[in-house]
Amino acid sequence: MHAKSDIGSEQADLRPTVEFWYEFASTYSYLAAMRIETLASDCNIRIVWRPFLLGPIFKKQGWDTSPFNLHPAKGRYMWQDMERQCERYGIPFTMPAPFPQHSLLAARIAHGGRQQSWIGAFTRAVYVAEFGQGLDISDEGLMANLLLETGAPVTQVLNEASSSETKIGLRAAVSEAEERGIFGAPSFVLESGELFWGDDRLELALETAARG
Question: Measured between alpha carbons, how far is residue 60 from residues 74, 156, 178, 183 in Å?
C-alpha cells in the first residue's frame, strides 16, 4: 500500500519543474532563495533544490576567491546593489565578514536534505543568518539551531551531512553543474536543459517553464 501511495503521489504532481542551483556564499542566491517558492507557486512550478559549491568551479578558472573580491570595482557595485535590492524586496541585509563565507557545512546539510519538506525553510534561514545578520554559517552550532527552528531532525541531519555518501554526492553535484554549463549562482535550469543565470532572471525562468 505504501509503495502504491508513493507512486500515485509522484504521478499526481505533473507540474513543470525548475532546478534551483544555489551557493550559500552567493549574495544574489540570497535574493533568489527568499523569493523563489512564492513566485514558483504563483506560476504552478515545482522547485528542485540543487545546492552546490562554486569554489571548485572558480578554481578551474584560476580564481581563489569570489570574483567580487578579485575585481574591487565590481565588488563595490555588488554591495551597493545588494542594499538596494534587499530594501526593494523587504529583506534584511548585513555584509558578512569574511566574504565569501565558508559554505561547505551548509551545502552538505542542504544536499542531504534537498528532497525533505524543510529544505526551503532551512535554505532561507541560512541566508538570513549570513546576509541578514552577518553570522558565520560554518558554525555547526548555528546550523543545529537553524535546523531545529525549521523542524528538521537535527542529530540525524548533521550525521548525514558528515557521511561519505553526502560528501561524494555534493562533489558529484558540482561536476553535474559543470556539465550543465553552470558557471555562477543562482542558476535556474528548465526540464529542457535551458539555463538562466542570475536573480534578475528568476521570473523569466519560471514564466518560460510555465509556458512549456
Answer: 21, 34, 11, 11
Starting at the edge strand found earlier in the chain, the sheet holding 195-197 runs 46-51, 17-22, 187-190, 195-197
**Per-residue pLDDT at 11:** 53
Q: In this structure, how many other beta carbons lie within 10 angstroms of the beta carbon of residue 57? A: 19
Is there a cis peptide before residue 153, judged by omega within 30 degrees of 0? no
pLDDT in tens, 73-92: 999 999 999 999 999 999 99
Residue 201 C-alpha from the chain's centroid:
15
- CA angle, corner 151, sides to 150 and 152, nearest 5? 100
**What's the one-letter identity of residue 80?**
Q
What one-character-per-residue DSSP string does 44-77 give?
T-EEEEEE--SHHHHHHTT-SS-HHHHSHHHHHH
Q: How many CB atoms lie within 10 A of CB 63?
A: 14
pTM above 0.85, yes or no: yes
Given 3.30.590.20, 2.160.20.10, 3.40.30.10, 3.20.80.10, which CATH number is that of 17-211? 3.40.30.10
- With CA atoms as reference, report the closest residue to 106 among 89, 131, 127, 75: 127
| Cβ count within 10 A of residue 132 | 18
Whole-angstrom CA distances from 33 to 27, 141, 179, 211, 212 are 10, 22, 23, 22, 23
Let me know if 147 is exposed, middle or buried by CB neighbors in 10 A (0-12, 13-18, 19+). buried
